[in-house]
Structures are given as C-alpha cells and as structure tokens.
Design brief:
275 residues, mainly alpha, 0% strand
C-alpha cells in the first residue's frame, strides 16, 4: 500500500510500512557501499560513483511517494561526502561551545515549526526562508565539525532521519499552512539536523517530536468524539424515548377531544328530527 499526497496514512495497516522499510533498507545498503567503496578508489571517481548511485536510485523509485518525501538517498549522500577529516582542534572549547549553540538554535527552529502545526498557529515564514535558514545551519555546522561520523552512527542517524521525515509529513500534513507540494519539499530539509547535532540534542529533539505527535493524536480523538455527538441522528434519540411517555401525557386531552366530537355529531343528528 502506497500513500499519496494530501491523503491520510492509515498506520493500522502493516502494508503501510512497506515503503518506509524499503527506503530505510536502501539507505542502510548505501551506507555500507559508501563505507567499503572508497578504500582504493580515487576521490573524484568515488564521488562520481556515489552520485550515480543516488541518481539511478531516484529514477527507479521516483514514483514511490514515501521515497520522494525523504529526498531518496540524496541527503545521506550529501552528508557522507561532506564529512570532515579528523582535525587537531577537535578539543577546542570555543569550537565546542559554538557547536552546542548551533545545535540548540537549529533544533529550536525546527520544533517551532512543529509546534505551529500542533497548536494550529500560522508560522510567520514561507517555505523559502525556512529552506534558507536550514541551509545556513547546515553550513555553520559543517564549518564547526572536527571529526567524521562513524559508519555505525551513520546507519542509526539515517534510519532516524527517515522516521523523522515521515512523521513530519504524515502526522502534521493536515495541520500544514502551506500547500501539499511545499510541505513535502521542506520535509527532508527540516530533518537534516538529525545528521549533524550531538546525540543528546538529538534525543531531546525526538522527545519533543513524540510529545507533539501524542498531542495531535489526542486532539484528533477529541475532535472526532465531538463530531459524533453533534451529528448524531435525531431519529436515534427518538428511538431511545419510550413511546408510553407521549401517550400518558396526552391521554386526558385526547379523551376530552373525542367527547366533544361525539357531542357535536349527536347535536347535528338531532336537529332535523325536531323540526
């Protein structure tokens, strides 16, 4: 089962998770190939080979919505090719403080967007400033990076990245203030912090995301319950009312009315006979 833009995703169906799992599996295979392929290959050939893999992967899975909203394998390829070499200033305190500041501001900006979805508020920015701010955070974090990411850590972060992107798109798509295409476009970009922030900052980010998802779920449940109460059929209420209550309440009035009708009929029949 493949979900489409603008349509709700039924997470109760196991088949719904097949495109998700396929994309994550492709990402894991790509990380393995990228880690093993650069052993004895020239740098420019290695880069070209990874880009070709990403290109043909996007062509083959171009019609899969769950792969498109995650940017296919391009985000992982970008992060892998931009990894820094080990630096001698890795323990610089000023650099470490700057990294923490960038991480915190980046995650705060991302979750300000998610909070606007959750609390039904218009985010005071269009898609272009959001993408520009995200690119600035990426460049700032790359300039402060001092060590490459291990292959095992890249495996974990790539899986978390796609989960974050899917959550952003499918959970918050009904709360989006933009059109569907723009919402799908910013999905991979607002999830790029997963690859760059420190582990403890990433844990805080995931915790905030789970809290907002739970709030959206409770709001949806309350909305559906209120709709059921408002739109309950009137005849259903009438079926629950015992018919005897109406008979007992009007029995005396009906008896008086019948007596009046009989008296009027008797008076009308006696008139001509007396003449």
């Amino acid at each position: 089962m493949e979900v489409k833009y603008g349509k709700p995703c039924d997470f109760r169906l196991v088949s719904t998770y097949v495109p998700f799992a396929t994309t994550i599996l492709r990402a894991q295979v790509f990380v393995v190939v990228a880690w093993m392929g650069g052993v004895q290959i020239a740098a420019h050939v290695y880069t070209a080979g990874l880009l070709l893999v990403v290109y043909f992967d996007a062509l083959f899975f171009g019609s899969v919505c769950s792969s498109c909203i995650g940017g296919h394998l391009l985000p992982i390829c970008f992060v892998w090719l931009t990894q820094p070499v080990a630096s001698a200033v890795a323990g610089d305190s000023d650099r470490a403080d700057a990294q923490v500041a960038v991480n915190v501001f980046w995650v705060a900006a991302v979750h300000a967007l998610l909070a606007s979805y959750t609390f039904r508020r218009k985010f005071p920015a269009t898609a272009v400033p959001i993408l520009a701010a995200n690119a600035a955070f990426v460049l700032a974090r790359l300039s402060l990076a001092s060590a490459p990411t291990a292959a095992l850590e890249m495996h974990v972060r790539s899986a978390v990245f796609y989960v974050f992107v899917y959550t952003h798109f499918y959970i918050f798509q009904t709360r989006s203030q933009w059109d569907t295409a723009t919402h799908a476009c910013i999905g991979p970009h607002v999830g790029m912090h997963v690859f760059f922030v420190d582990a403890w900052v990433l844990g805080v980010s995931l915790g905030c995301t789970l809290f907002m998802c739970a709030r959206v779920y409770l709001q949806n449940q309350a909305h559906h319950d209120s709709e059921d109460r408002v739109y309950e059929p009137v005849y259903a209420q009438e079926r629950r009312t015992p018919p005897d209550t109406f008979v007992d309440a009007n029995a005396e009035d009906m008896a008086d009315l019948m007596q009046q009708l009989l008296a009027a009929k008797a008076g009308a029949g006696a008139g001509p006979s007396e003449v």
